Amino acid sequence: MTKALISTILIITFIISNNTHAVALTVNDILKEQQPPPGVVFEIVSGQSKLLDKLLPSLNNDIKRLRKRFPDLSIAIVTHGLEQFALTSKNSQNSKIAHNLVKQLVKEDEIKVHVCETFASWQGISAEDFPDYVNVSPAGPAQINDYLELDYELITLP
Q1: Angle CA 16–39–41, to nearest 5
Q2: Per-residue pLDDT, 23
């Protein structure tokens, strides 16, 4: 075997063996647990600009189910694809459903909602273009990794 192939195999093996979140989880999987995890982070990434208006109502219902079973469960949402731009202040009228639900989730349900500043900057959008109730993280994937370091369970959507 070549040195490059051996290195690649070792890197892949290391990644797989150290990834405790390799299994895709669902809300139902978490609801079956006897004890709550330290938290849950929902990752949303897509190429669909209107996705949040469609996805957030069902996600809100899933969050209610999780909180009914585990009332003190910490929950975060990280959106870092094209869908995140529905949450800019400029789009508050075009994406009323998403904005209203995010406001409710943040203010009433104490959910942290993050968007990705790096991807936004690539599209000419700055942190200031998002309303105060949206947390602009330097990088969406890094924000998710921060939650995983806290042993949050990852649920990837859609």
Answers
A1: 65
A2: 64
The backbone torsions φ and ψ at residue 79, rounded to the nearest 5 degrees and listed phi first, read -115, 130
Domain extent listing, the chain: 21-157
Position 4 pLDDT exceeds 70: no
Our measurement of the distance from residue 140's CA atom to the centroid of its chain's CA atoms, rounded to an integer in Å, reads 8
Residue-wise pLDDT tens digits, 47-94: 999 999 999 999 999 999 999 999 999 999 999 999 999 999 999 999
The C-alpha atoms of residue 149 and residue 153 are separated, in whole angstroms, by 10
* Tokens linked to 98: 């998403």
Tokens describing residue 151 = 């042993």
H/E stretch holding 79:
strand 74-79
pLDDT at 20 over 50: no
Please give the C-alpha separations between residue 39 and each of 23, 44, 49, 56, 86, in angstroms, as whole numbers: 16, 16, 27, 19, 26
Report the CATH fold assignment for 21-157: Hypothetical Protein Ychn; Chain: A, (3.40.1260)
Q: What would the two tokens of residue 32 be? A: 């079956």
Q: Please list, in sequence order, all residues whose beta carbon lies within 8 angstroms of the beta carbon of residue 111, skipping any fewer than 6 positions away.
A: 63, 75, 76, 77, 105
